[in-house]
Design brief:
The protein is of the alpha/beta class. The protein folds into two domains: 1-34 and 80-123 and 210-292, Rossmann fold (3-Layer(aba) Sandwich); 35-78 and 124-203, SIR2/SIRT2 'Small Domain' (2-Layer Sandwich), CATH 3.30.1600.10. Helix content is 29%, strand content 18%. It contains eleven helices and eleven strands. A six-stranded parallel sheet has the order 5-4-1-9-10-11, with helices on both faces. α9 links the parallel β9 and β10. α6 runs parallel beside α11. Bound molecules: ligand BV8. Residues 25-27, 30-31, 36-39, 53, 103-105, 123, 203-210, 234-236, 238-241, 260-262, 282-283 line the site of ligand BV8.
């Protein structure tokens, strides 16, 4: 059995492979300067990012959740795709049987030229805006959605999220000791279609369902034929359904290939199966080498 981190053995597998699935997470965008969720970057003003990514948090304080998302929109707009994004886009152009699933909402895959029919943005996009009805307990709005909204700041009330700051200073927005003025709901833009709901980030929050048609299309792709390689890139693999796809796609001949800073820690190596690979390091450095 080749060593789990033998790049030439992986290249040999890659040349013999047709159907490739990738599952990407925040670690892929780390090299582009965007914070991950569960590492050091996981805190925003002492709020856990995952606590703000819920409908409950939004209904409780739409202004606070919008500040968090407006800040991430600003960061993502000022970031650029890294060599990892470009390597995945190049693989898609070379191999029509490669499907990329990404949990990232930063729009860096499309900006790297990844063919749109070969990527599924599982958790939506920071740059989609949709309607939410605060009075409707499941928060479903009227169905209005706007794609490719790159307004920065998103609205005047969120100007604090669009400020740039000298490198050695902390943005007041990020300083937990800096009291944030509460943003009144009246200053959050209303839905232009129903004029009743509010505009919200078009991302999938916890306890919200992912797009059903997208999930069906992914299941159908996996069921279509054997998957030769599953690339699991820069993800802590704790969020479902994203975390379930590697197992769902695995068959006897499949190689699951983990690309993660922590991929070669003993507790992770212990999970490897016969044909698997594990490469510890920065996805932006490893992916061009692995996929060349
Ligand atoms: C749903 C919003 C139906 C957008 C996010 C089955 C079992 C258990 C629980 C569930 C289950 N099915 C459903 C659930 C509930 C829940 C869930 O999974 N809970 C878990 C956490 C317990 N799932 C849901 O609610 C999903 N909805 O299934 O609907 C339903 C509904 C109700 C109840 C049941 C079912 C909705 C999930 C979507 C949630 N929204 N974000 C946003 O704000 O971005 S998830 C959030 O976490 C982000 O999207 C993020 O992408 C995602 C995963 O995080 P990662 O990307 O993995 O990032 P993380 O920081 O964790 O890890 C980074 C990794 O990179 C680390 O491993 C690090 O080592 C590595 N790394 C760092 N730097 C680098 C690197 N690697 C390489 N190079 C580097 N440079």
């Amino acid at each position: 059995m080749p060593k789990y981190n033998d790049i030439s053995a992986f290249h040999e597998k890659l040349t013999r492979s047709k159907r490739i699935l990738a599952v990407c997470g925040a670690g892929l965008s780390a090299a582009s300067g965007l914070p991950t969720f569960r590492g050091a970057g996981g805190l925003w003003r002492n709020h856990r990012a995952t606590d703000l990514a819920t409908p409950t948090a939004f209904v409780k304080d739409p202004g606070l959740v919008w500040l968090f998302y407006a800040y991430r929109r600003h960061m993502a707009l000022n970031a650029t795709p890294n060599a990892g994004h470009f390597a995945l886009a190049a693989l898609a152009r070379k191999n029509g049987k490669f499907l990329c699933l990404s949990q990232n909402v930063d729009n860096l895959h499309p900006r790297a030229g990844h063919p749109s029919e070969q990527i599924k943005l599982l958790h939506g996009s920071l740059f989609d805006i949709k309607c939410i009805d605060l009075n409707d307990e499941d928060g479903e709005g009227c169905g209005w959605i706007q794609h490719d909204n790159f307004d920065d700041p998103f609205c005047p009330a969120l100007a604090a999220a669009a400020e740039d700051v000298e490198p050695d200073k902390t943005l007041p927005l990020l300083d937990p000791d800096h009291e944030l003025a509460k943003i009144p709901v009246s200053e959050i833009p209303k839905c232009p279609q129903c004029s009743n709901g509010l505009q919200r980030p078009g991302v999938v929050w916890f306890d919200e369902s992912l797009d059903g048609n997208m999930l069906d299309a992914i299941d159908a792709w996996i069921k279509q034929d054997v998957v030769d390689i599953v690339l699991v890139i820069g993800t802590s693999a704790v969020v479902y359904p994203a975390a379930g796809y590697a197992g769902q796609a695995r068959s006897g001949s499949t190689s699951v290939v983990t690309i993660n800073l922590e991929a070669e820690l003993p507790q992770n190596l212990a999970k490897l199966k016969k044909n698997d690979f594990a490469f510890a390091g920065d996805a932006a450095v490893l992916l061009p080498k692995l996929l060349e």
